[in-house]
Amino acid sequence: MKMVRKIAFANMKYHKSKNILTGIAIFLTTLLLYMVPTVGMALINGQFAMINELYPMWHGRYRELDSQIVEKLEVHHDIARYGLRSDVGKIKDTKAEVMLFYMDKECMDLCKIHLAEGRFPEKSEEIVVTKGILKEIGQQGNIGDTIRIPCQIYRNGGLDFAEEKQFVISGFLEDAEMEDENRTYSALVSKAFFENEIPKEQRVYRFFFQVKGTEKNILTDEIEERIENIALQFGIEEKQIKINNEYLAANYIDAAFVSIITGIMLIIVFAGIITIYSIYYVSMGERIQEFGKIKAIGATKQQIRQIVLWEGLAVAMIAVPITIIVGTVLAKSVFLGILKLYNDESFMVSTIDVLFEKNQVQIYYWWIYLLAIVVTFITVYISLHKPMRIMAKVSEMEAIRYQMGESGGRKKSKKGYRDITVGRLAKIYLSGNKKKSFMTITSMSATGIFLMVVATVLACATPEESANASLVGQYEISIADETGNKEHPEREWSNIQQYNPLTKELEDRIEQINGIKTVSAFSEMYVSLVDYENIREGILGIPEEYKDTLMDGIIEGEVTYEELCRGDKVIADQNLFRWYPDIALGDKLKLIVQDDDTSYEKTVEIAAIGDYPIGFTNFSFLLMAKDGVETFSEHNLHFYYHVLAEENYNEKVKMQLEEIIAETEFLQMRTWQQSYEEHKAALALTCGACYAFLGILGVICIMNMMNTMIHNVHVRKKEIGMLQAIGMSDTQLLYMLQIEGVFYTVGTLILSVGGGSILGHPVYQWAKQNGILNIRNYHYPVNAAIIVSVILFLVQIVLAVVIAKSVKKESLIDRVRFSE
Amino acid sequence: MDWKSGKKIRKFGLIGIVFVLLLGCGMYGFVNIETANRNTHLEEMVKIYPEMEWVLTETFDYYHAQMLKEVGVFGLFVAGLAGILLCVLYFIWKNEWKREQADVKEELAGICEQLEWFRKGNYEITPYMLRADEKDEENRIKDILKDLGDYFSALKEQMAVEENNTKALITDISHQLKTPLASLRVSYELTKTKNLTDVEREEFLEKEEQEIYKLEILLEELVKMSRLEHHMIQIKPKAASIKKTITEAVSQVFMKAYDKNIEISVEMEEDVVLAHDSKWTVEALANMIDNAVKYSEPQTAIEIRMHQLPNSLIIEIEDEGQGIAEEEVHKIFQRFYRGKEARRTVKEGAGVGLYLARRIIEQQGGSIVVKRKLGQGSIFKIVMPIK
Amino acid sequence: MHKIVEIKDLVKYYQTGENVVKAVDHTNLVIERGKFTAIVGRSGSGKSTLLHIMGGLDRPDSGEVWINGKNILELKDNALAKFRRRKIGFVFQDFNLIPSLNVWENVVLPLGLDGRKVNEQEIMQILEKIGLADKRDAMPSTLSGGQKQRTAIARALAGAPSIILADEPTGNLDSQTELEVMNFFKRCVSDMGQTLVMITHDETIAQMADEVILIEDGKVEVRS
Q1: Which residues of A fall within a CB distance of 8 Å from C90?
Q2: How many pairs of residues across A and C have Cβ atoms under 8 Å apart?
Q3: pLDDT in tens, C146-155
Q4: Do B15 and B54 fall into the same domain?
């Protein structure tokens, strides 16, 4: 056994160059195996820490519960902690939205609401506000001061008339940036106030709770199930339930996630195996003689196998520790690097950064090290398995008689060329070594195809398109309406209609702005569905400019635009059926329409079903032609102005639009740019990580090519020396090597890019269906394909040059050596 | 017109034409698209503001005209550039052509010079040709001329050498003849002048007989050799059985061997039909076997073996004789050479046999080499090609 | 006497660790055109080095090498390669053939490298003279040692070079094959009027040469 190891080590040193390559491949594989889970875990931990820091702690929330249900829930056995919140009312008369609400202590803990100073309101006149609120109502005060606020309380299903109330400030909430920006605030009132103002039957609660018995290792799915079960028991509908997904995901194990990570590691292992195997395979030929001699002097099959294995393991034993050290050092930088990239774009990311500094994010796990090491060694073992077998089977005589070239040259003769050129030399050599060439190309392509597929998926996920899906046009101006606010009945859509600011004039004004192309007006009418408890839905009227989009989106049924102008036929967006599973194509929906102060009944038929982006429907599930909707009322029913501009974003244009909007209180605006940036941020992290991963895979793949080309030349050193002796110039040698390299490159490219492209499409469809990365359209990853091709070619060219140079030097010495 | 210079020019010219065409198409396309765009825009505007139609049309026309003007100017500019480029290219081409013509003239002049030298019997390489090699490696004519020059030189030398050879030959022959002749003359003088007893006379006569015999043999060999030397004897290879040839050669020497009690054995498994001149090959083989017999002690053996290789035949003649000294191995095939030891042991011999044998074999495309045995004797190996 | 190769004061030293080996030590040499010159000497006496330098495969530390009136050491690498494939033919002791090419392709290799068109007749003639005409499509793995060397010789001749340099070409062959190969070699070379310089151990082979040069410790002694 000792002898075996000695031989193995000696071999390893002798075949230095090949083993260095193998070593590098092992190094990279292990590095990936280590880095991926480490950085992944770090990112996750960071995210979780961030979520724990920023997000509330409740598992689930039911809303619109009455007191009865609440009482029952409070004693439910499955609920560990709970808190109550109720919207009490609003402050009238401000341009901003100031909500009054009540929260009990539990709820405040669960929702992570902290006071900046003071204490929670207990007495009925006490209130907690923010500095911003005081500004809005134009009053000043500190703790203990009295302020007067005109409030509208929620009674009878809507906002009652305003009453002026006096409050004593008992505390201040932290000012939140978002609140100040959007001018929506919340003020806290006491339980006493709440119960005083609103009679018991009218109280509507939101119930926040944590499910019982949750130790750290439960799957999130389970928790979700239990939340839904409880809801079922109490007749709480799905739309009343909200599950705190991020929090759950942060603290409990997401099954899907684990499988993804495992999947990625398997891929790395696979790539590693292919590469290392290929490296060994290619050099097997010349080792046969060597092993034959060892066998001839008496080694057994078992010993030969062990020599091969130990040689490989020896390399691994050197490579792995280096990797561990390098990996440990790198992990931190990589992680910080990724964070830094997106620090500016996301508040959440910067939180992670901060937490990391505070050492609240762990990135080193002992089990990852163990995992990486063990898997690497397994990889090496598997790669060596076949070579071990083959070497052991070699017969002594065959080995000693073995000549250069493949398998002793089965051909007896061949019809050759009359003239030989350098190009033909390369071609003949390659076709003589078909198996090896094939092996190399295949293994390289495996990595390449994978690369292309991932690149395809990433290329398909463009934030532009997601933004496009969420918004039609570059700017969307819509009516800012409100329902059920007793104090501001004019904010009802039915009222706004009468003095609709979205007039033709406005359209013209907007169109005149430099940089705007057109404005399209979409109409909307609110109706109540009689058969569904009068739930209010909207019918969207599509103008003629978008007729094609409307018609193209139909997936079932048939209807023409003209028919939709009549006002009795409607297209249902397929999302309708998620909420109302009973409705089907062809159904006639009974509607109650409110026009001015009158309401009347109308029936519409669902003539077709369509699939439309959210930006198009704005969450209305019923679609008609504009003319059709306008039959519902005399008023101006314009609800949305979709503004198409020449540039996706222009500061001046935006400002001008904002000015126009500011003129009335009933308009609001969304921009494409906003949506784009949101999506971009979300995508960025994923992309970054993927490309880094792919990059390393790519390098592994290139290792392979390097090895083959080096090996090809090494084996032919004497031949090449002889060729040079009979007059092959250095340029010709380089040319020959280049042709061989080109062969590998082109072969790999065809397989990877070709195969990858073909595979890319079904994978894209799978991703689209599963809503991964908001993919909507197929994009061919042109950039990736080009970059891959260019890099491969460059590497091959450089490789050929380097090899040619080294061959030149060595051959002369070789020749002299073997002759002397 | 020289192709080489033309090629480059043509390449550029082609690129230029393609470029101009592309540009033209591009401009044309551009004009069309712009026009179409404006038209649609105009239509749209007219739809929205029908009352402004004529104003709009005017504006459109104006812009259209502007665009055409700009395109036109651009086109002219490009045309101008192209024209200039063409002129430049033309001049370059002309220059190239002129230069190449001059080059060709120079080359021809150089070649002429070299040929002149050859004609005058000077087979040296002119300095022009020596220099030219560096610049213009592709020119085969120059290479061939140089080789020709070398060949002529070699030929001249060879003729000189042959002349010397002939002179040497004559000298050698006369030298070789002198010795036995001198001996004869002495003998003759003696028998003429003196009164000899019968016994003495018998002795002298015998001696003379020997010398005459020696002379005859010598002459025969000399004649053969000189004829061979001067290509008066044709060696005509014909397919024939080598076994027969070897047997014939052995039989010629057999009696001598038998007298000396030397055994000749021949090992031949199969016969080989070989293209060779039987008569002369017999001569060569006989010479060699004869040598073997001459220089071997009695009661020794001579073995003749034959090996057939795919493309050659090897005949070995092994003897157990006195062998050949290391320094002499080369020289034994030389004309008139006799080894020191050989001269000591055997008085007769002109030293021509091996020389002749080698010439004969070599003329048939074969070779003779001798291998010294560690103990006693030598192995002569003859290799002949099998066509 | 017409010189085809002239070597002036050639020096080549090797450094192996701490030892300095004087492979070629101030050697002068002249090779005559059209003759078969054998170079003999013990192993390690620098014969191969000398031959390599003569053929432009190696560069000396100092000295001059004139071939056909040209100082080949002045040529740059690419030019030297071109010179080699036109003017010089090489035959080594082993590893001469490319295993993936058949006999014909191996033989026309130097022409291919030089970009010259192959004259089928000429090459066939060489193959016939050397006795390999029927093997033209055979692969090297099916050839015997002697046939392989003859192929190598044919290849050296195919380019019609002026000089042929051979480094113990028959070293690996048995004595009979050796004779056969040498016979062919000598015939071809003398028929085409080429110059042959061959390194050999074997006395018997050396006999066939017109001139024999003995190299001892990097120095030359001529013996004819």
Answers
A1: 722, 725-726
A2: 136
A3: 888 888 888 8
A4: yes
